[in-house]
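Researcher: I'm preparing a figure for a lab meeting and need a structural model of a single chain. I don't have an experimental structure, so a prediction will have to do for now. The sequence is pasted below. Please return the structure as tokens so I can convert it later.
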Amino acid sequence: MHPTSHHPSIPPAHVNAEGQLAGFVHSFDTGAAVDGPGIRFTLFVSGCQFHCLYCHNPDTWHLHNGQLMTVDEVLKELKKYAHFLQFSGGLTISGGEPLMQADFVGEIFRRAKQELKLHTALDTQGFLAAHLPDDWFDSVDLVLLDIKQMNPEKHKTLTGQDLQPSLDFALRLSTMKKKMWIRYVLVPGYTDDPADIDALATFVDQLSGVERIDVLPFHKMGESKWLELNMDYRLSDVQPPAQQSIDWVTHKLTLPINSSITRCVKQS
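Model: Understood. Here is the structure written out token by token.
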């Protein structure tokens, strides 16, 4: 494993009092059906440098908000379902942003592949990926890449961070021949501009390895969490996209840009 603690943009690896590699875990989902192929064991870790206006888990933003667990403790939980997952799905690590805890997450992926022979998927926006070597991704079978917006200014408004690192990561994955699913949240007034949809389709067309694009309709199921945390939820007046809008975006992304890509809508 390549240590990443020397990279200034990635927090240092956490080691518990017994000297074991550990990380902050938000939660588990042992029957996830939308986080990769098949039925997934999805591990949600804490910490995210994006503050997306539509985030439905703002309680994952702060790294130390989660439960401290060692890699061994996570693997012990994962092993309960390993036999089923070997045939039906696999392991997905999401967040938050998993690359905020790259040492912890990377070791879980490595052991899940070597010891449990599981299919692995990383759900990320890729903002910190430039700080990791290519071989960090050797134990990752599939990257679920979240592209939030294609317009740099709108991306900054929506997430609080720059767009380019995510695009650079997509191009790097393409060069590495790594399999990708592109995920795009459709938010009325924020991500549904025709020019932005066209830009996404054009960008994805130059990538190799993209297996599908998931259009995820905006919902407000996380609004209550914002209120519980005394945070200002700026999308309270925004309604989920109409089916007509979803169909239109799906059509735009289903045009024969690249016949090898499966483009679909996942209701979230």
